[in-house]
Amino acid sequence: MRHILYYKIIMTQAALSHEASLSTRSTLSPAAPPAPAARPDEDAERLRAFGARLDAIRARVERDLGAADVDHIKKVRAFSRAMEVTGRMLVHVALDPVTYSVGIVALWLHKQVEATEIGHSALHGAYDKLPGAEAFRSDGFDWRVPIDEESWHTGHNIKHHQYTNITGKDPDIHFGSIRLNRETPHRPIHYAQLPITALTWAHFGFGMNLHFTGVADLLSREPHEYDMLPDDQPETRRAAWRRLLRKYKRYYARELLLFPALAGPMFGKVLFANWLTELMRDVYSAATIFCGHVGEDVAAYPRGTRAGSRGAWYAMQVEAANNFEVPLPVSILCGALDRQIEHHLFPRFPPNRLREIAPEVRQACIDHGVEYRTGSWPAMLGKVMSRLWQLSFPDPAPRDAGVTAAAPARAGA
């Protein structure tokens, strides 16, 4: 009976929001006139067929993984190393602003691909089973960002990807003091969340380590509100601080002390370049990630939501994410997170495979009535900022049965 009642709530909300959702659908998806709500058995069959379609994509790609994927990531790592050597050398020896600027850009390129195309993919386990990719195995991988790998694995791979946008399960429905959907209760600090967002983006790696290690819980929430920590015991608190500091010390000692010190009298010049490339990577990465997760039409799921089938879980993942369209070199700098929908469906796929399957996934969504959102990066950024502005204020009216952005895809949840 509970599933039947929940299904009726979902379908009622979906019918009310159907016409509005048409205007936010991808320009790549053909518009269609409003259709009557499907019967439960029809909707279950639609989701079953959708799940089978995506399972077939998964099986085919997994069979095909191998040398080409290893070759891709090795080429990206070779590029990264070349940019690091070039960048660090130029910021050390440059005596003119042009050479110095070239060095800064080269060093940023190194840091950006290490954070996204290489590190993010490796820690998802994309290369764990591929011969020749031992340097990119998730176990023991040293991510060249100021984020503790163990904490990120627990908070991101397990909690976020398994329970995307489910209140009480996904710790990423808010980030620090930033409210990302209406399932997060409004607090007075949210009135200032646009300037807080700007500050957060400028220190995104630093802030993500606070978030995933649980220290942000200790600093800003009551124990019953913790996202990452299981309790408020002294040992839990000490462990969170240890995880935070072990990566901060290792990473920032290298970037902000060692390399500037090697420059001797040019310490300040190198320190500034290293700090600026941190800022550039953090802002670029934050813009990438926020565009994939935030928007008025991004699905948010109330506490206790569960997918009733594999197809329903796939549909929930699709409708809780956004894509955006960029050229291949820009996509590599994004780590294929411009294909956020595909990444949420298949988080262990290498980034080159996410780009490869995107047209097929989009067509499957169109064929089975699952909303697939994409657009230009500037357009998505505009939607992100608009949504953050809306969420800086209290909700205008009580939410209907606690369901937001529900869609027919979640029948049976």
Keywords:
mainly alpha; 2 strands; two-stranded antiparallel sheet; 413 residues; 61% helix; disordered C terminus
Task: List strands and helices in order, with pairings.
Elements: H1 2-22, H2 40-64, H3 67-93, H4 97-123, H5 149-162, E1 174-175, E2 178-179, H6 193-202, H7 204-213, H8 215-220, H9 234-262, H10 267-293, H11 310-319, H12 328-334, H13 340-345, H14 351-367, H15 377-391
Antiparallel strand pairs: 1-2
Helix pairs in contact: 2-11, 2-14, 3-4, 4-10, 5-7, 7-9, 9-10, 10-15
Task: Write a structural description.
The chain has a domain at 2-10 and 39-64 and 294-410. It has 15 helices and 2 strands. 44% of the residues are buried. α4 packs across α10 and α9 (234-262) crosses α10. Helix content is 61%, strand content 1%. The model is unreliable at 1-36 and 401-413 (pLDDT under 50). With 413 residues, it is mainly alpha-helical. It starts with a helix and ends in a 22-residue tail after the last helix.
N-to-C terminal Cα separation, in Å? 13 Å
- Percent of residues in helices comes to 55-70%
**What do the pLDDT scores average to?**
88
Q: What's the total helix number?
A: 15
Order of helices and strands: HHHHHEEHHHHHHHHHH
Class by SSE composition: mainly alpha
| Alpha carbon gyration radius | 22 Å
